[in-house]
Design brief:
This is Translocation and assembly module TamB C-terminal domain-containing protein. It is a single-pass membrane protein. It holds the Pfam family TamB. It is built from 4 helices and 24 strands. The protein is 10% helix and 59% strand. The strands form 4 sheets. Strands 3, 4, 5, 6, 7, 8, 9, 12, 13, 14, 15, 16, 17 and 18 form a 14-stranded mixed sheet that branches. The protein has a 6-stranded antiparallel sheet with strand order 19-20-21-22-23-24, with helices on one face.
Length: 368
């Protein structure tokens, strides 16, 4: 019996009647683990209600290209005509999380309807309550969004019909690395903090750095890095170094791997875009300090950093009608060469060429 990318095998169900109710027992096998559930349905002398206690060890809950998760639950479920509830604890002994992208869109809740173009909350017909203690085991790994390492920690996850899904607790990334614009840094500290707010907007406390030995530096060794703090939806980045360096020099060592003095014009463009993309404190000053090595007409970012699909677009207008540009993906360092020629009456044609493909678009722009 497949579900959510998992094949559940050896499902058994046994029933036994009793006065005013029914007892049942169910078991299932998935992966190397199994679940056991014992419950009771009451239907005599009042509304129908059911209780179910579920326990298991290393049950393969998801087996998808981006997620493979085993769970060891010990939970109690309650169902009735007017409410549902799940409480208890879930241990995750093993998981491999390798997401390809993070969707930044927010779906409208099922209890929202549109009336005359305005959102209104309709009455919740069957409220469901959740209170689960989630514990991460010793074999939970993540490899995505620039992060790679092992996750540890625990959370109290709660959900109520009249509020958002919330969590309290802390997760730590250990033995990890953080890749930023194609450069891999060692994580000295990686904490995700949940303080009772929405589970999708926790606090972040991360320090990632690169240590360069005296031998490699051909002189005195040094440390450069970045501190990341704040809420996920409003992150703040702060550069640091030992010994002290200006932010422009730190950013150059982090992103292009050498001193700003020896940076090329293309690397200077990349550094300027990195400062803007990271929203660094003093980012405007960094940009101003780089203007002497910028000699392009167009410099902007396209894509989403959360999806690891950010491209720096560098362009030069050779004439009134002819534009040349180059896109540099900041995570995989792939490039796309652009040529756009402006036709008359709002039409233009643009070609894109890369080692993987070649294409062309006919573009029409109108103003109103």
């Amino acid at each position: 019996m497949p579900y959510q990318g998992v094949t559940v095998n050896d499902v058994t169900l046994s029933l036994s009647g009793e006065k005013d109710g029914l007892r049942f027992q169910v078991s299932a096998v998935s992966g190397k683990g199994q679940l056991e559930g014992i419950g009771r349905v009451r239907y005599g002398g009042g509304p129908i209600a059911a209780d179910l206690d579920v326990k298991g060890e290393k049950f393969l809950l998801f087996s998808l290209p981006e997620y493979e998760i085993e769970v060891s639950p010990d939970v109690h479920l309650f169902f009735s005509g007017d409410r549902g509830e799940i409480r208890g604890s879930v241990k995750i002994p093993r998981a491999l999380i390798t997401p390809e992208e993070m969707k930044s869109s927010v779906s409208v809740s099922d209890d929202v309807v549109l009336l005359n173009g305005h959102e209104e909350i309709k009455d919740e017909k069957w409220p469901f309550f959740t209170s689960l203690n989630v514990f991460l085991g010793d074999d939970v790994e993540i490899d995505g969004y620039g992060l790679k390492g092992r996750l540890t920690g625990k959370l109290l996850v709660q959900d109520k019909p009249d509020s958002l899904l919330t969590a309290v607790g802390e997760l730590d990334l250990v033995d990890g690395t953080f890749t930023i614009f194609g450069r891999s840094l060692d994580l000295q500290r990686g904490r995700v903090l949940f303080s009772g707010g929405p589970i999708n907007n926790p606090g972040i406390d991360v320090r990632a750095q690169k240590v360069v030995s005296a031998e490699k530096a051909r002189g005195d060794g040094y440390v450069v890095g970045v501190d990341v703090s704040g809420l996920v939806q409003d992150l703040q980045f702060h550069l640091f170094s030992d010994p002290f360096m200006e932010d422009t020099e730190i950013l150059s060592q982090l992103i292009v791997g050498h001193s700003l003095d020896s940076s090329s014009k293309e690397e200077g463009n990349l550094l300027g875009a990195a400062a803007v993309a990271l929203g660094l404190k003093g980012g405007n000053t960094i940009i101003n300090n780089l203007t002497d090595i910028l000699s392009v007409d167009d410099l902007h970012l396209e894509g989403s950093r959360a999806k690891e699909d950010v491209s720096l677009v560098v362009g030069k207008r050779l004439s009134k009608d002819l534009y040349l540009g180059y896109d540099i993906n900041m995570f995989n360092q792939s490039g796309v060469f652009r040529v756009r020629y402006d036709l008359k009456h709002g039409f233009s044609i643009e070609t894109r060429t890369s080692p993987e493909s070649t294409g062309a678009d006919l573009i029409y722009i109108f103003q109103r």
